[in-house]
Design goal:
Blueprint (H helix, E strand, L loop, with lengths): L2 H6 L18 H20 L2 H17 L7 H19 L1 H4 L17 H20 L2 H12 L4 H8 L3 H19 L9
Length: 190
């Protein structure tokens, strides 16, 4: 099914999680609202744009198929994408190691001195390495919050964790990352 067919196909209405507000999204409204965040999320996990697009498209196709059975479509989409990414990474470990967007771009750093720029690049590399070393669940929380810009409530819906547990875990993850960066000479990274 093409993207156009998916967006224009008539779909039944179903109550979303915000039933109190009378919310009744369609696949099309969810597609319009969630395609970009889902693509960013998938891309941040697999590092390949084409793979991320395929994963998100498959998630929307499955949403359409199971529409009547899904209580919280947005949270279901994020979980579905996460699970599909994990399956892809598990099945294609070698491919995942090389990204189709492997160039490192530093935007907004043209005014920096060469030393400051090197420090930023080194810190970014160290942080990226530390993020890769995190447990998959912790890495997912960091990516949802800081790369995708989701709120604690949205992260809670996507992961199944309570809102307070999301905050608690993110707090401890960030403290651990900061503690690992300090010995490398990174007191404050702007």
């Amino acid at each position: 099914m093409s993207r156009i067919e998916l967006m224009t196909k008539s779909t039944p209405r179903v109550n979303c999680t915000a039933r109190k507000e009378g919310c009744a999204p369609t696949v099309r409204t969810l597609f319009d609202a969630e395609e970009a965040p889902l693509l960013r999320y998938a891309f941040s996990l697999v590092g390949r744009r084409a793979v991320a697009e395929d994963i998100v498209q498959e998630a929307f196709l499955q949403l359409h198929i199971h529409w009547d059975d899904i209580e919280s479509p947005r949270a279901w989409l994020f979980r579905s994408v996460r699970n599909r990414v994990y399956n892809y990474v598990r099945d294609n470990r070698r491919e995942v190691l090389s990204s189709d967007n492997g160039d490192t771009q530093s935007q907004g750093v043209h005014d920096e001195s060469p030393d400051a720029m090197m420090l930023r690049i080194e810190a970014s590399g160290s942080l990226n390495q530390m993020l890769e070393e995190l447990d998959e669940d912790d890495r997912q929380l960091v990516k949802l919050k800081y790369f995708d810009g989701l709120k604690y409530r949205e992260i809670s819906e996507a992961t199944g964790l309570s809102i307070s547990n999301v905050g608690y875990r993110l707090h401890h993850i960030l403290n651990d990352l900061a503690a690992k960066l300090r010995p490398l000479g990174f007191e404050k990274i702007s």
